[in-house]
Amino acid sequence: MPELYVALLHLPGSFVYAATRAESVAAAVAAFGDEVIGIEWLQTFDSLPPDGQSNEAVQAVLAGLLDADVAFVEGHDEDEAGDPAEVLKAHVDHWVDEAAERFGEFSIGAYGFAVELRIDDEVELGWAYGGAMSPGAAELFGRAAEQARGGVDRGDG
User: Fold this and answer.
1) 20 to 30 A Cα–Cα from 70, which one of 9, 98, 137, 138?
2) pTM of the predicted model as reported, rounded to 2 decimal places
3) Rounded distance between C-alpha atoms, residue 128 and residue 80, angstroms
């Protein structure tokens, strides 16, 4: 049975909200078309927190599905994306809020993040870490890299 997917997509020169009904994430991405440069976020409508479900842009793009299989609503121009540090802070805030909403009370142990920094024509990998550097950081980033590749390294060989 198809699920309702919503997304914030990066198209040439702008960001747009999009929605479609699809059997899978891959099918949803395919439905959004060939002009997609990147996906800021994509998830089922049911997995959005209540404030995300009631978001004006999300509601507008859902209304567009009444007349089409895929709907798009203008977001903002590429040049209006804002301060990259603020975007990073918003991602972290969303991650923490989502964790609190889904799991209730929790504690944060070691934490870290890696970001590709583009400075003029140079690309640097920047990272930050909180917790014991040895052996914690190497193990944490190793587990994250393994999970990104599609499996979770549980340290059992």
Assistant:
1) 98
2) 0.53
3) 26
List alpha helices for the chain, DSSP H: 25-32, 50-53, 56-64, 84-103, 138-148
As a whole-number percent, the residues of the chain with pLDDT over 70 amount to: 87
Which candidate, 122, 120, 121, 140, places its Cα nearest to that of 131?
Answer: 140
Give CA–CA dist 143/84, Å, rounded: 26
Domain extent, residue 129, equals 84-148
Sequence letter at residue 68: A
DSSP assignment string, 33-59 = -TT--EEEEEEEGGGS-HHHHT-HHHH
**Residue 32 falls inside a structural domain:** yes
Residue 157 belongs to a domain: no
User: Of 108, 12, 7, which Cα lies nearest the Cα of 65?
Assistant: 7
Q: Under a CB-based contact definition with an 8 Å cutoff, are residues 113 and 128 in contact? A: yes
* Per-residue model confidence as pLDDT tens digits over 88-138: 777 777 778 888 888 888 877 777 777 777 788 888 877 777 766 666 777
